[in-house]
Structure formats: C-alpha cells, structure tokens
Design goal:
- With 418 residues, the chain is of the alpha/beta class.
- The chain folds into two domains: 3-25 and 278-412, Lyase, Ornithine Decarboxylase, Chain A, domain 1, CATH 2.40.37.10; 33-257, TIM Barrel (Alpha-Beta Barrel).
- It contains 13 helices and 23 strands.
- The chain has helices at residues 17-23, 33-44, 58-62, 66-75, 86-94, 112-117, 127-142, 179-188, 207-221, 236-241, 265-274, 378-385, 389-394; strands at 3-5, 8-10, 27-32, 52-53, 55-56, 80-83, 100-103, 121-124, 161-164, 193-197, 230-234, 249-250, 280-284, 288-292, 297-298, 304-305, 310-315, 332-335, 340-344, 352-356, 366-369, 402-406, 409-412.
- The strands form four sheets. The chain has a ten-stranded mixed sheet with strand order 14-17-20-19-18-21-13-3-22-23.
- The relative contact order is 0.15.
- Substrate binds at residues 171, 349.
Amino acid sequence: MTAELNGNKMDARPNFDKEFSFAKRTTCLRINLDTILSNIGILKAQCSNHTDVIAVIKANAYGHGSVEVARYLSRHGIHHFAVAAPSEGKVLRQAGVTDFIQVFGNANEVEIPDLLENKLVPTVATIEFLQLWAEKLRLNKENNGLISNDGSNVHTHVGSVVIKVDSGMSRNGCQPEDLVSLIKFCLGNGVHVHSIMTHFSQAWDDPDFTKIQLETFLKAASPYRKHGIKLHTANSAGIIQGFGVDLDFIRPGIAIYGQPLDNMPSTIAQYEELGLRPAMAWLARPTLIKTVGPGQVVGYDQTYKCKEEEIVATFPVGYADGYNRLLSGKGLITTIYGTPCPVIGRVSMDAITVKLHKDTACQDYYILQDDFTSANSTTQMANELKTITYEVCTSLSQRLPRLYIGDGKLYTERTNSL
C-alpha cells in the first residue's frame, strides 16, 4: 500500500525516525517548498507574461515559516515579498533576506524607525505620513545613514513607498480622489513611489463588485504609469478568477501554500483542476499508548468515558501548538494511510488523546493535518471550527518544529540538510 504526503509518494512503511530526530520533538510540520514554487508557477501562468510576483509571506508565511520560504523563493527568482508588520520584515532581514519587502496596512509614524532601519517599504494612505517619511529621508541622507553600497538588492528600494487606494473595501488606503495629492507630494519631495495598489474584498464569489473595484482603481491609478509607477490588485482569489492579472504584479497569499480560499467542494475541485497542492503536513507520534478499561475517563473535566476497553494514545500537541481546543471530542487524526482516529476528551495546552484502532495501534506516525479532503484536512478542520483555512494555518505555533523539502533536500531551519 502506498500513501502520499506533501505531493510525494511514500513507501508502504515509511520511516520518519531521522526527520523526527532532527526536529527534536515528536511532532513537526513537514513543508514542501518545491510545492510552493510549483503553486506560484501555476498562478503566474494565469497572468500576462510581463506580470511579476509579490509573494505574501505575512503571519510567518501563513504558518509555513517565512524565513525558509523567502530564502527558497529568492533562490528561485522571486524577489518581492510582503508582510503585515515591520517586525515581520525585521525577522527576514536578520535572517539575511535582502529582497524587496513591502509592509501592508496603513503606515504609521511609530513604525518609521523600524521601516528605515530594516529598509522596508511602507504602504501609505495619508499625506501626513508622507510628510514625516520625506523629512526622515532628508535627515538620513544628510547624515549619510540611508544609502549603503554593499551590493544587495535591498538598497534599490530604500525610501520607496507603495500607495494604497481604497476601491470599495473601506478598510485600508486613501480615497481615490486623494491619490492625486499623494502622488504630487511624492514627485515634488523626492519620495519614490514603487507602485500603487488596491485590495479586492470578494473576488472569489462576487465578480460584479470586483469589477467595480478594479474599474475604480484603474481610473484613479492608470495615469501614473507614465511616471514608471507600477500597479497591482490581484490577491489569490483575483488571480484565479482573472481580475487584474494583466497589471505589473500579482500578490498571491493563501493559494501559494495550496490552501483553499473557502471550504466549498467546488473550490477544492477548482484547485485540483489547476494543479494547486497543499504544501504542508502536520505529523506526530504518540508519546504514550495505553489500554484503558470500561468506565475510565480520559482528559480534563471527565468529558469522555470509555464504554469498553480502548486503546488511548497521547500525542504531544495541544492548543498552544495551534490544535484548537474546539476540536475536543470532534477532531480526527489519521494514520499515514488515511485511517481516521478520533480525538477523545479535552484538547489541552500541550496534549491530545486519541482512540486508536486495534489494527493500527502499532503504527509509529500519524497525520494531524494534510491534503484537501481527508478527515484531517485544513478544510475539514475549518468546517468543524466554523472558520476558514487561513485561521487554521496561521494559528500554528512558532514552537512547532518545521522540516523543509526543497531542491531535493530535507532540512530544518537550523541546518542546510538532513
């Protein structure tokens, strides 16, 4: 019998002992960077030939590990990234990532020191921020503290900004009519505008509203292309649905990790038709397996009582790792061959308890999260939790070890190769 994990065929009796010894814990996330690159290629193929990619790696690359994702993608020709906070950009700089890094949101005065120190590109919506930014740039240039000549890519965009236009979502960005004054200020005060952007709020399932957003944005922003200012609008949903895919950049996020935009079977079918695949699996091995007699309770609060003699396994993951407490008595993990095993009792901070089948109790490794449609998929978890795959993935804790597959190697964040 064979199985598949992260898009890779496995032998009938796979041996993850070496991997877990490097993870130094009896649970880990197994992340296929080659799959991420393949997903980006699939998304890029939906666009014009001249369209480049800004890979969105905020929230620790949606739980996948921003440092290793950025390093790998940079080696493979992706040189634009986006995060949600200056602190996320700082982590990448400290890890040696020298590419363009945009910080989403409405840039704020308190962020300026970190933005400049780490050579990050803010997303701007107000003239007040631009005035402060221009003054800081002037002072830094006078003190020779801004420009460096170490040859890295980062210095190409030092001091640049991205201006965001609110095209109808009413969250971030300037009003379309205010774009004129923001661009005029930048052109007159030596602030380089890397690009102008907007964000679609419902590109996946409301094409009419998305068309209005796109038209609103293009009417406001298109005149500035003659100044060399680039435009971008398309998030994952926009790319797949064909909105804004002929502009200068796309900004794929959740789709590059192969996670569905919603939990509908039709969405999963569309992903599979395109060839998009999940890049991450969550594995664990039990730290204890015991036989529990009828009438005995399992876990906190006596929420589960054995009706018969049962085999109960304890796994070293809990809600502090991102395995949601609401999955208490509802979650499922599977053997590596897909046999479901129910989570029983409360999910605690650092452990879950699982009822094993007698014919699978001898297996060493189990899957807590994988694939599109299996019992333990992020989609099924999201359905159970009444949320979306975004939240399931971004809830995965930093303390979970991450193992990476890329360029024919398997490695951790601490090593180049296993």
